[in-house]
Amino acid sequence: MTYAVDFETVSTVGLESSPVADALAGLRANEARYFKNKYDHVFTVEPAADAAEVVDWVHRILREEREIVIASRPLEATAFQVENIRMAYVFYESGLSINVMYTLDDGGKRAVGFKLSDGMEVPEELASRFKFARQKSKLAGTIRGSFFVIKNEYGSL
After folding, report:
1. How far is 157 from 100, CA to CA, in rounded Å?
2. Which end of the chain has the lower number of beta carbons within 10 A, N or C?
3. Is the dihedral of CA 64, 70, 73, 74 positive or negative?
4. What angle do CA 127, 132, 133 make, to 5 degrees?
């Protein structure tokens, strides 16, 4: 079932099994607010099992670009396009959020972003590879984030 994320009344719907469910819900709401304010896009998610194509695309990019395999179970995912940018998000039980920004124009910006919910440890598969910068969010507390630039072509979903 698709769920429109409400950034005014933060809910843990779909994220209840996460040990940091409240912080992950805040992180998800933070993303929803950004896309509503910047692009007037309603951020919707669905259970990862119903969005297998999105999860597989994100995992393929991680594996082929950096040989990264995420140990945590994906809970929710979404993919959408704003302007000429294809976005994909996967939210994990550990509190991790991964997004892929894939500009459709040749030579456009393409990157994978990692965000860690407040209260979670850096996942082992990322700890030795990335430094995480901190940012404050009214919805999510302290978010730690990092990213890498995508070098290869992955087409759209």
Report:
1. 11
2. N
3. negative
4. 170
Residue 111 CB contacts under 8 Å (≥ 6 apart), including other chains: 100, 101, 147, 148, 149, 150
User: In the predicted model, what is the mean pLDDT of residues 128-136?
Assistant: 93
- Residues 56-93: tens digit of each pLDDT: 999 999 999 999 999 999 999 999 999 999 999 999 99
Query: What are the structure tokens assigned to 96, written together?
Result: 């991790």
Pure H helices in the chain: 21-39, 52-66, 124-127
- Say if CB 16 and CB 50 are below 8 A apart: no
H or E segment at 112? strand 110-116
pTM for the structure as a whole: 0.95
Read off the amino acid at residue 29: A
Nearest to 25 by CA among 98, 100, 97: 97
Residue 75 CA to residue 72 CA, distance in Å, equals 9
- pLDDT per position as a tens digit, 11-69: 999 999 999 999 999 999 999 999 999 999 999 999 999 999 999 999 999 999 999 99
pLDDT score at 156: 64
- Using only the alpha carbons of the chain, give its radius of gyration: 14
